[in-house]
Design goal:
29% of the residues lie in helices and 26% in strands. It is built from 18 helices and 28 strands. The protein has a 6-stranded mixed beta sheet with strand order 4-3-2-1-13-14, covered by helices on one side. Strands 6-7-9-10-12-11 form a 6-stranded mixed beta sheet, with helices on one face. Strands 19-16-25-18-26 form a 5-stranded mixed beta sheet, sandwiched between helices. The radius of gyration is 24 Å and the shape is globular. The N terminus is likely disordered.
Amino acid sequence: MNMSRKLLALLLVCVMTLTAAIPAMALTGEEYAAAAKVYPGSFAGKTVILHSNDVHGALEGYAAIAALKKAYIQQGAEVILADAGDFSQGTTYVSAYKGASAITMMNAAGYDVVTLGNHEFDFGYTQLTDNLKDANFQVICANVLLRETGAPILPATAVIEKGGVKIGFFGLETPETATKVNPGMIQEIDFTTFDALYTTAQAAIDSLEGCDLIIGLTHLGVDAESEANGYRSIDLLAHVKGVDLLLDGHSHTVMTAGENGEAIQSTGTKFANVGVVVIDNETKKIEDRYLVDTQFLAKDEEVLEVAKAIEAGVDALYGSVFAKTEVKLDGNKAPGVRTHETNAGDLICDAMVWSVLKEGGLENAEPNHVVGITNGGGIRATIEAGDITMNDIKTVLPFGNTVAVVYVTGAELLEALEASTFCTPDAIGGYPQTSGIKWTLDTTQEYAQGELYIDLAGKETTYYAPAEIKRVTIEAINGEPFDINATYAVVTNNFCAAGGDTYNVFGRAFVAGSTFDTGIPMDSAVVDYITEVLNGVITEEAYGLTRTNQTQILPEAEEEPAA
């Protein structure tokens, strides 16, 4: 968009109206249509639901949705604000406060009803319950249960009546949370899984009988890795009845319908868009729904002031420059850390291994038998070439994980790699970023799905063990031949060490007493490695490219693109 079009778009939003002269101005057809959707005229007799999902710490976006709310109210609409989860983590602006600052922002924006995402549990169940005590909005979720009693931790549904229209909302959390969060942080709770997810959802839907519309706030998504267990939002709609629309999250998808036209809407992530659902109060039907690109939105000054105050506090704490990088460190999701080796993954794994070995080695492991693995889903951002601040590092590694060591056999190491790449080349959060392991993944071979993994509490997880090793081969460990019977020390994060994501084999080692937590914060290990080993400069020579420790054999003999 050129500058004149930017200025015009801003003007349109500020005055919150369109005039007959606008078509002659410098807007593209697409831009004009988007702006016209926001402010087409009177909304008298309408109820508008504005929705977000996967905000992940983009605090100033709350000022945009708040401004849009005021605009629709000024146009005569009744307005409901809703969110489909993952608001507690993503940038230091929320992680520094363990998610509490997100509640502050949602209160300021005026949210009415939200459900939980998996990242709401990143700081533990107890922290989440403390955070939610300050919420001025309804929080609903049908399928997260107290382990001791089996009772839901939150109401399953909420009913909001606006303009004479009774709207029933039900909330659902992805059962994948059980393995996407450090198991040690959520020992108090369980998640309904497999067909029980559908049964739980249907019961919630049935309880809303008498409502004019039933809308699901679902943190399920449409990721390929969720297909095997039927945990996608499109799978849910195929198994339940009585739903008018799902407002979805989790996969960061931008969509106004599912792949087969299913009634699902999702905004992407970090307020790239705001979702809009327009309901006619007379017919009590959804008459329109769409996404609004936030570039067309003004920002509510009061809400923006709250965001900037939080940001300033965090920037003052973490904003100083401590190093620089000559290269872009690739922390993109896909293609990126969840699909193949990246230089950011190489750097982080190298740093973790160094942080453990620098004190003189590891007991029970030969120095050349020490390797590093971290899950790609734990790497949350890219660092562009230039100065590096602690804020950058904490944005890349926001979970507060510590460095842990797991002792496994060569056979168990193979299993961990095989299980953690079961759906590659499709993205998977458990994708292994590695150090010291030269290995090949043959994605032309079908994953041999075995039994469901069992977690530390004896519950079924959402991932399957390999029935046999068909896709992964290990060529060398630190330049020496791989020994399937040898013992290897895997330096990882405490999430994976406890069996998180696809690393159930590490969880078994934990139970066997073959794991220890060093207590070294993962982000501190990376900072110290950059300053002490790299002398404060990540050079082109050191990390300009991935070191090609990983090879992928792709269908039709394609070679993996350079990271």
